[in-house]
Amino acid sequence: MTTAIPAAEPSFRDSVDIMFNRAVALMDLSPGLEEKIRVCNATYTVRFGVRLRGRIQTFTGYRSVHSEHMEPVKGGIRYSLGVNQDEVEALAALMTYKCALVEAPFGGSKGGLCIDPREYDEHELELITRRFAYELIKRDMINPAQNVPAPDMGTGEREMAWIADQYKRMNTTDINGVACVTGKPINAGGIQGRTEATGRGVQYALHAFFRDAQGMAKAGLQGTLAGKRVIVQGLGNVGYHAAKFLSEEDDCVITTVIERDGALKNDNGINVEALHQWIAKHDTIKGYPDATLIEDGAELLTAECDILIPAALEGVINLANAHDVKAPLIVEAANGPVTAGADEILREKGVVIIPDMYANAGGVTVSYFEWVKNLSHIRFGRMQRRNEESRHQLLVDELERLSADSGVGWQLSPNFKDKYLRGAGELELVRSGLYDTMVDAYQSMAAIWHNRDDVEDLRTAAYLVSIGKVAASYRAKGL
Ligand code: NAD
Asked: What is the pTM of this model?
């Protein structure tokens, strides 16, 4: 179903380097420092056997560390048959730039296991995951102080809980052990709002963009998000949450969902929650009643819309289809969905791209909050919430007393009272921290995009911000 990437295209890793080189050419870095930042520090390949269904099956996994200018290094673990060294290294590099851009104090890393998780039952996946984790833990490639994985394509809370438990079994006296991985379920040391975080961050990125009049003008867009026609590719963790929030909270119209087994189209809008439940039950989009099925789903990446959100895999917009893209705005919810060649074509066409290293940074931002929560051993808001509520109650009581005593008879609206009196719990604090991060990071990119004549696009601006921060960190260390 993926649009085949033309042979003339560079690999994913090379694509990231081409984009990096484009940005770094506009900077004044010494060649040595430039090279130090670009290269991937190390990639560990492991092959291990697990006895399944009466025979030993061998699996190949990777953990790549791109930059250790800050530790721990951070990056998800992906389960997919497409996993290879080039992909893991490209994703690790993107993690370095992403963390720097949103000021999450981590270096960049990524892991992957070459496996189709749908071919194994839960028990088998647990055996495989624990064995993979064992191989990485014993080499300190999973460790709360050195290398902290998170979910990515094909993995989620369940796998993270197994990894955390495996680490605890192997490091029984490490009081911070649970911080060895993020994206865990709440009852295994996770944080409220982590599962939705990447999709939520995509929504916040669009909020920031729609408040940027100059950016909107460059994309030829007007008005608010309400009524904007959106195409989403991939209704997994990231795509589902992004599409759900954009349609339910911002009144976007999700006209098309592209999945691995085709696409669904309904110009009046697809009910994302209903479709999500359909997929959970039937394991396919086929047969969903309220939309038209198109067998070659990838074709719809070039359909008419206001916003295109690729949220599945890399390289889907490439030399073969970039000329035909009609969306004025692309939000890269996936990592690397636009190849370097396609990026150039789209830039010339005037398409605005909100780049991956920013658009999907919500996940690592909330992972950072989870890691801090684990190290502090207390949930956010636990100490302040009641105190905040009682201080608010004091103010409301005083206002009501003044109103009664003065005989004016003003009444606070019940809605105001409900909202004002409620102190912030963990979920509210996480969303507030995420919103703040996404808005700040957007502004740091937009300031460069709009004010430097030699910077044509948001991606280059994003690289300039993040490479500048990584360089400053290396310089501070005396490198
Ligand atoms: P996921 O496994 O939850 O979902 C991926 C979805 O894409 C699935 O619904 C799958 O069926 C669909 N898909 C697979 N192949 C497809 C194809 N050829 N065409 C259309 N759809 C296809 O993965 P995810 O965690 O949502 O990750 C998606 C992307 O977002 C990846 O690029 C990942 O690196 C990136 N990302 C994820 C996170 C996170 O927190 N999970 C954070 C940052 C970036």
From this structure: 0.95
